[in-house]
Fold these 2 entries.
Entry 1:
Amino acid sequence: MADPIEKVSIIISKGSLEGIYPGLIMANGARAEGIEANLFFTFFGLDAIHRKRIDHIKVAAVGNPGMHMATIVGALPGMSALATHMMEKKMSDLDIPPIPEFLEMISDTGAGMFACKASVDMFDLTQDDFIPQVKDIITVGEFYEVAAGGHIIFT
Amino acid sequence: MPTATITGVAVTLNDEGFFEDPNQWNEDMAVELARREGIDPLTDQHWKVIHFMRDQYFEKGTGPTVRVLGKTSGVTIKELYQLFPKGPAKMAAKVAGIPKPRGCI
């Protein structure tokens, strides 16, 4: 049998609902298997840990072929909110927690959460803009130190 | 099907070390199974989780995931990971003598 995975560091770079959840599910799932896990939020992925934006994460209704509808339909007002509402309902039925609760849960599993310094500077943010579970704002070099000895997954 | 001897009794385990038949399990075995997982001794909180896992298994046919444990067992997620550092649902299922719970959350 192949060597088991002992550690993963997961980068979340997108700010849409479908861009954020996979990384969270992978981090939580890693911890459930006893695998050490860290989450690193960069670019629009920072919305997932932003106090004011965390409750307003939406599904991308435009530029998303997975929606299987004409781009012009996706651009209609309220379409993104509708798609988000439908997906949240389905996830709630499956007992997948909303993003704020999920992040709190993942933090409680002992996973580390970090924000990318370059993105934080670019968006003029500070540690105070983030939920308290975020341990630190770190550089890419520091991220590699945190990730040392494990696998890196970019989402 | 591999068999193992726990506290002198032959039991059937799957390839990952989980019980095939939860009725072969008893509390003495849990102490021994926990020791093999590096948990020694089993505290009251450990037992609370172990009994909850078994109750859920016999009620629903599958053990609870960490998410369900955190919501319904009365033990917080944080504490679950302190009690069972190598993954609460997985480790507790192994010690509780039930199959590994399946679920992504």
Entry 2:
Amino acid sequence: MAEQEARPNRVPLIVLAWAWVVLPFAYGVYQLFLKLVQLFG
Amino acid sequence: MALGFLDRSRIVAPPGWTRWLVPPAALSVHLSIGQAYAWSVFKTPLEKTMHLNGTQSSLPFQLGIVMLGLSAAFGGTLVERNGPRWAMFVSMCCFASGFLISALGVATGQFWLVVLGYGGIGGVGLGIGYISPVSTLIKWFPDRPGMATGIAIMGFGGGALIASPWSSSMLGTAPDAGTIATAFLVHGLVYAVFMSLGWLLVRVPADGWKPAGWEPKTDHGKAMISTANVSAANAIKTPQFWCLWVVLCFNVTAGIGILEKASPMIQDFFRGTSTPVGVASAAGFVALLSLCNMLGRFVWSSTSDLVGRKNIYRTYLGAGAALYLVIALTQNSSKLVFILCAMVILSFYGGGFATVPAYLKDLFGTYQVGAIHGRLLTAWSVAGVLGPLIVNRIADSEKAAGKSGTDLYTTSFYIMIGLLVVGFVANELVRPVKEKYHEPVAAGVAVRSEA
């Protein structure tokens, strides 16, 4: 039973779901790089 | 068990459901519970407002990690039986309520409520949440199990990156009890909303589902990958489980030894040299290690899908020991060498966490891999005590003997090398699980339809 059947459009849901987790994560990574500058700056 | 909308039968993926919705569901849980690594942000404000010492303010975190190990070990079978939506929902309820109870504790001046809330109840949320997506991801990504679990477990490493600056900005420079209580309250509410994506979105594949065009490999020289299933009760009777327990425990011990003391360690190392490291730079070093810990979870775990689980652990343990030796021998002659070695060691630390679910799946099958993973996480609890204990005790005794600089840590590094070598040997001893532990094929299929 592979993914063969007709697929409903899940693209908006995929975009929303990934944005939900990626945006806060990007905020954390940005804050991290601000600290890294102190190490090598 | 009547679970209503939480029941596994309600989340079987309809035809056309995409498996790429499962990693964000898992990440919403792991990015939240990874907040635990940022507990230190609350320590000083709590000490000042509730008149606590450092040991007391560590209690909520310490109890949280103990409860993580215990709930993962003892709740693993429940998680397997009831499914990921139930597990993620329980995790959200416990983790968010932990913050709400802590808010009440701070507002009323009852520190024991903070310990019970954040550490006790929140800790159960950590353990159940940590293992909740593992077996589901492995079933959705049988072709890339290392990458799939690597994404989720990377989230646990990344949780503190979000929580640390967010919590700090909420607390400000001199928070009073009301500010801390409000911060706990907001954390509880925001994490409840954020984690809801997980239990709303997670789906399990229908029986017999497999990725389009993918066929299970039936041993092309990779004898370590089993197609048989082993129950959690039988898994802990096998030497393979305990070899992996030693591997995980010592790999984590070696990483945590650096991670826990990273800031004072780099300052001590280069004090009095031509390249001293100040407090602000040390904070940058800690951030760099966090990044490596997080990226190692994804990069090394994904690499294990290509090179095999046993080989990747040979790298973590063998190269890890070699890198510790480089630090011990070069001492403080080069800041760059020290930082590079520490970065790679921490990436191996993260990689060890993220690769172990796929290693378990290779050895014991997918049947109860979540429950087996939960039991294996007791190694983490032990390592969480062992690593800091070794490094701190030795540094304290060397300092008491009048030593300073690199002398405070050299002995610890040689002990870490020894532990990594023991872990390397344990990994070499891992062999395919004997047939007597395998589930009968009919029973395995029957239970897998539930799992």
